[in-house]
Automatic annotation (TrEMBL):
Residues where 2-oxoglutarate binds: 201, 203, 213, 271, 289, 293, 295
Biased composition, class Basic and acidic residues, residue ranges: 351-362
PANTHER family: ALPHA-KETOGLUTARATE-DEPENDENT DIOXYGENASE ALKB HOMOLOG 2, DNA OXIDATIVE DEMETHYLASE ALKBH2
Compositional bias segments (type: Low complexity): 37-50
GO annotation (BP), single: DNA alkylation repair
Region of interest: Disordered: 1-50, 335-362
Pfam families, A to Z: 2OG-FeII_Oxy_2
Name of this chain's protein: Fe2OG dioxygenase domain-containing protein
Segments forming domain Fe2OG dioxygenase: 194-298
One GO MF term attached to the UniProt entry: broad specificity oxidative DNA demethylase activity
Alphabetical list of InterPro entries matching this protein: AlkB-like, AlkB-like_sf, ALKBH2, Oxoglu/Fe-dep_dioxygenase_dom
Residues bound to substrate: 216
Domain of life, per lineage: Eukaryota
Length: 362
């Protein structure tokens, strides 16, 4: 999957020679006000609904921010870079509200076998995923913005892939939408790495969690690099060495912070976001947190695995601003418009700028 420059996502940006401004300067009385520029949503046959694109004003704030030098955390078998922050708090706040309102989420339930017994696992957080492994890439739309039945191309032969290749997926693989690909491009530029998957977790409150695990699957390669961006409520990120139990690490990850884990980290360390006894209330997140991880899938098995465990077979959830919670999206697309009562991403952005413990698969 080729890397797109940030500038390819819009036709015109506010000047960046100076610090970007959210409000335009006053105009002469006789001059008519120009309509605010917007970018069309990302659409694809594999999406349950169009996904709103980042407005140029927010995109500029994300792209032009001058980041402080990250600090390196080096321990035995651990290579971790900590960006504090990666995005400024106010911009990260707007990004959090935007992504929560526009992305489709899922509450996945799946079955695993351990010792001959089947166990039903209810994922204690909302998840979603976009991307495909490096054996394939997505077919572009035609000049009219339409897609034919061929939606994936073999990376070597440049021919349409056999539909059996991804039969293990619970849904069609989905290209990364503009709002997430922009973040991927920025993370790639700052880290020097490349990624082809974006996984998003939404922790609705402090009861949502992920238990100790490592991203050491063979389809990510022997020493995978995982970049993880935090938005919203500060949550503890715990790490422990797989063999030396005396080696531990606790990082409170706050709004706009990024960690990049490299080298032997995934092979030798476990990490988790544990449950907490109480949820922060009254703040702008009301205890919610979004975590975005960027990964590079090297094998076909990666695609099936990620869609099985992050999309599954259940219903689509969308953020309902009136109820202030995720709700099942009862209605699908009609005539290219989302007919549900769920608030749109752009509307939330305007406002922003103004059960059981999971058993990890083996």
């Amino acid at each position: 999957m080729s890397k797109r420059p940030i500038s390819s996502f819009f036709t015109k940006l506010p000047p960046v020679s100076k610090k970007p401004r959210l409000k335009t300067p006053p105009k002469e009385e006789e001059e008519e006000e120009e309509p605010q520029e917007s970018t069309p949503p990302t659409t694809h046959p594999s999406y349950p609904h169009p996904i709103s694109s980042l407005p140029p004003s927010l995109l500029t704030l994300l792209d032009t921010y001058t980041r402080p030098t990250p600090r390196s955390i080096i321990k035995t078998d651990l290579d971790l870079t900590f960006h504090q922050p990666f995005f400024p708090s106010s911009t990260a706040k707007s990004l959090y509200s935007f992504l929560r309102s526009t992305l489709p989420f899922y509450r996945v339930t799946y079955t695993i076998k351990r010792g001959g017994l089947e166990t039903i696992v209810k994922t204690p957080r909302y998840t979603t995923v976009f991307g495909v492994d490096n054996h394939s890439y997505f077919s572009p739309a035609d000049k009219n913005g339409k897609y034919d039945d061929i939606f994936l191309i073999d990376a070597k032969t440049k021919k349409a892939i056999n539909k059996e290749r991804y039969k293990s997926c619970t849904c069609r693989p989905r290209p990364i939408p503009q709002c997430l690909e922009i973040l991927k491009n920025i993370v790639e530029r700052e880290s020097g790495e490349t990624f082809n998957f974006v996984l998003v977790n939404y922790y609705a409150d402090c009861g949502d969690s992920i238990s100790y695990h490592s991203d050491d699957e063979s389809f990510l390669g022997p020493n995978p690099t995982i970049a993880s961006l935090s938005l919203g409520t500060t949550r503890d990120f715990l790490m422990k060495h797989k063999e030396d139990k005396s080696l531990t690490l606790k990082l409170p990850l706050s709004n706009g912070e990024l960690i990049v884990m490299k080298g032997a980290t995934q092979r030798k360390w476990l990490h988790s976001i544990p449950k907490r006894s109480s949820t922060i209330t009254g703040g702008w997140t009301n205890g919610g947190r979004i975590n975005i991880t960027f990964r590079k899938g090297m094998e076909i098995a990666c695609t099936g695995n990620y869609y099985r465990y992050n999309v599954g077979n259940g219903p689509v959830y969308r953020w309902d601003e009136g109820k202030a919670e995720m709700v099942i999206c009862e209605s699908e697309m009609k005539d290219g418009k989302d007919s549900s009562a769920v608030a749109s991403g752009s509307g939330i952005l305007r406002d922003a700028i103004k059960n059981e413990e999971e058993q990890e698969r083996e």
